[in-house]
Amino acid sequence: MRLFHNGRKRVLAGTIAVLGVTLGLAPISAQAAVTCRNIDFPVSQGTMHGKLCTPDGADTVHVLIPGGTYNSSYWDIGYSPSSRSYRMVMNKAGHATLALDRLGTGRSSKPVSASVTASAQAHAAHEVIKQIRGQFSRVIIGGHSIGSAMAMIEAGTYRDVDGVLVTGMTHRMNFVTVAPVLAQMIPAPLDPQLSLRGLDLGYLTTGPGTRYAAFHTPGPKVDGAIAFDESTKDVFAATEAVDTVALTNIVIPASRGINVPVLLVVGNDNHFCGPPLGSDCSSPDALHASERPFFGPSATLTTHIVSGYGHSINYAPNAASYYDVVANWASSIS
């Protein structure tokens, strides 16, 4: 009787597996394997380091640029990764991810800071995209904060991507709140955590213990998440901010050259939202109306708001829900 019962279970399992293949339903145990490797891409100013994670059969890659004082770890947060790791969620959705260290950060080359601008970072990302383009049918470039500026400059200038993800940034920077954060920055050589990197004084970072107030409020202060953020903090070159402002806020924005799908996601971020100078982020529709004029006539803009968190939305406890929005949007790009 037991043998007959076990046989029925095996037949039933086989039938379910066949149905799964027929209907396109993959059981959890059959999720595609993910291969991750570290790559140093040759670029004009040395090498740009990236971590490429590719599920079997992936035909879309997300090329990801972190924000100021962040490195590639922002896209693969090690604290509670099932809810905070962008990389993990996208890989489970069948998308490859290439999380980059901006020049001057992480394992990338560290040029003299004065040569590191947002445009230089965008050009380096463009050089990386040329090297991986043949491996994937679709390339999406994404960024966070100043990394979003670089993503938009890259996409609007070189027009070599199929979609653009903008997070933690709008075209209306609220300088009233941004200025105090910048004023609290310290030169990297004077920071106990980063002083041994051999960086020049033009590279800046956050002072010890300041990141929650600068990047996470009004979100909850989750000690483990903030500790991870503090332990992985990095730098940005002061010169990166100059053309970020010029090319996204003051002169005709580079994003006017973008004519592919764009997804723009922000939290309750007083650095880019609200009075006196920020965008209207009171609802996705209001944000869409505020931001649509800054993109090309053929661009399709989708907007999303992560409620209850501030600037660094990948650290939000509910980040996985916004990742699902990204995955569905990216899968819709033809």
Written account of the structure:
By secondary structure, the chain is α/β, with parallel strands linked by helices. Helix content is 36%, strand content 19%. It contains eleven helices and eleven strands. The strands form two sheets. It has an eight-stranded mixed β-sheet, with helices on both faces. Helix 4 (118-132) crosses helix 5 and helix 5 packs across helix 9. It starts with a helix and ends with a helix. The model is unreliable at 1-30 (pLDDT under 50).
SSE order, as H and E? Answer: HEEEHHEHEHEHEEHHEHEHEH
Number of helices: 11
Calculate Rg over CA atoms.
21 Å
Give the terminus-to-terminus CA distance: 53 Å
Helix content: 25-40%
Mean pLDDT: 91
- Strand order in the sheet with the most strands: 1-2-4-3-5-6-10-11
| Residue runs with pLDDT of under 50 for 5 or more positions | 1-30
Structural class computed from helices and strand pairing? alpha/beta
> Can you tell me the overall shape?
globular
Strand content: 15-25%
What can be said about the biggest beta sheet?
A: 8 strands, mixed
